[in-house]
């Protein structure tokens, strides 16, 4: 009973290798690009084109070039080489992890060799385009997809140079295919560059939409939970005495900060030369003790200037927190009287200071006013004027040009 069972198992084991190979060939994962392989389908089109051109080259070599060849063995060798290398490089291109610079350099060198040996197989004129025929465009095509324009053109130049290794074989057809290969590599490279840019923009937009959706979800959660609790503390706190009043004040400030952070006022991630809305940027600094007032419309200012204004405002608010008193309130007013200048007033109702106090602070090494405020605004071509008196609070008038290049 056991002996026949073993004999029946042997054919199954013997055919398992072929079955596994067939299973791999029909596995959709081999032929369907991963969603992370953004250029996978482009490589698939290039593979199909190269395989078709390879069969065309083999057909021409065996039925048209072979009868007049002086060395038939070279013709057969090139035909086999074209088919084998097409399969090998296609398997390499199927996996993103295998698409490395060395693979594309090897592809160009193998193609160069198969084109160059034409002179060993036929007399001048025996194969107008070389034994590789139009198949030689495959290597520059792959390189253009991987490296974009100049990588593809460089590969095309290397491959096409093999057509002129033996001057006697040079002709008009070879000059024509050289121009065609260079043009194809250049155009495909530009197309791939545009595709990559489009994919990057799409991914950035998707990330932004996902972030906004998450922010809206968090806003609902915070509104239904934390904000209601903070509002309750703010309303009921003063009835609990001095400590309750302090808790109410802190609750009001936390509520204001939460509302600001949940708004869509993100201005990061842009180029320094791109214009952004200064009014929206300043609104981020609104708290229970800081009131920000701006015009209703946008105030578009280069990002580099906005960064300097933000740094200056942060220094002013830090000085208020340190020196003006715990209950000090701040008012920030943005105005624009002319198109090429904005005016920012920052006023508080704190302790204030005399004129000689600011001078003595600088002499003592406290350079916040001189460097972080006046120096920062002066560096971008603006002016900063300080108005203050003991017991009368402090006011800054910042005039900043918006057309600084």
Automatic annotation (TrEMBL):
InterPro entries listed in its UniProt record: HATPase_C_sf, HATPase_dom, Sensor_HK_TwoCompSys
GO BP, one annotated term: phosphorelay signal transduction system
Do the record's keywords include Membrane? yes
Coiled-coil zones = none
Q: Does the keyword Transmembrane helix apply?
A: yes
Every copy of the Histidine kinase/HSP90-like ATPase domain together lies at: 312-402
Pfam families assigned: HATPase_c (PF02518)
Q: Name one GO molecular function term.
A: kinase activity
What highest taxon heads this organism's lineage? Bacteria
- Transmembrane ranges? 45-67, 73-92, 104-122, 142-165, 177-197
Q: What is this protein called?
A: Signal transduction histidine kinase
Question: What species does this protein belong to?
Answer: Tessaracoccus oleiagri
Q: What is the lineage of its organism?
A: Bacteria, Bacillati, Actinomycetota, Actinomycetes, Propionibacteriales
